[in-house]
Amino acid sequence: MKKKYIIKTLLKDFLTATLPTIITRDYQIPIASGKIITLIGARRSGKSFLLYQLVKKITVRVPKQQII
Whole-prediction pTM value? Predict the structure, then answer.
């Protein structure tokens, strides 16, 4: 039951928060590959901000409520 509450809380926080200001990187994540993509790298190398960039790109076509 506790895991379910944590997931609900994280999703609610994501939906109500605004995305942070990002500097667009040249790196592109291949979202149409039909495969699971894993970002790995050193700490503080920009992995989270690449995901924020992807979310910003996707929200042009898809409502934020449909993104997990």
Answer: 0.69
